[in-house]
Task: structure prediction
Amino acid sequence: MGPDEELLGVVVHSGLVLGRSKDVVVAVRRITAFPSGLALDMVVLARDLHAEAAGRREQAASAHRRAAEMAQREGITAAERHHALQQAMIERRYLPSFDEGDSLRLGVTTPAGEARWLDAYASSSSRTEGHYRLEAAYWLTPLPVDGLLTLVCGWPEIGLPETQTDLILPELAVRAAEAFPLWDFAEDADA
Result:
C-alpha cells in the first residue's frame, strides 16, 4: 500500500541524515504528505565490506523468495519445499536467517513507546564494485496527529546501528489537505 497515485502530495520535509557509521549512511530524501498518510523516501549508501554484505543479503533474499514462490506455484510437498528453501539459504553462509534484517528497517514509535515497523511499497537498488545504493519508499498511515514523528531505523547486518530521530512537522494536517488530484491540474492546463 502507498499513496494515491493520482494525487500530488506536499513535501513537508527533506534532506535529513538519520544514521551513519564509517561506511554506511541512511537519509530521508523527502517526506510527502497526503490526506491519508506520509510517503517517506529513503536512501541507504554503503561502501567496501558493508556494500558487499548488503549485496549478498539482497541476492540471498531474492533467491529465498524465488524458491518459496516456485514451491507455492508448483504445489510441491512440504518436504520438497523445505529442501528448495534450504538450497536457497546455502548462498547466505554466515548471514542471519531471512527476516526483516534483509533490508533497511524503518519504523515510527507509537504513543506506548514501541516501534511500528513499516514495509517499503517501492524500492530499487544498485551495486558496483565497492558501492551499494538502496532507494526505498515507505508509507505511514494515518498522519501523526500532533505533527511529531519519531523515526527509528537500522540495518545492523550491514553495519548501520539502530537510531532514533524526532521530527516536528508543523501544521501537518493542513499541509496534507493541500494535496490535489493530478487530473484537476491537467484539466486546468487544457482550458
User: Anything to note?
Assistant: Residues 7-190 form one domain. The chain is about 30% helix and 45% strand. The first strand starts at residue 7 and ends at 8. The first helix runs from residue 49 to 74.
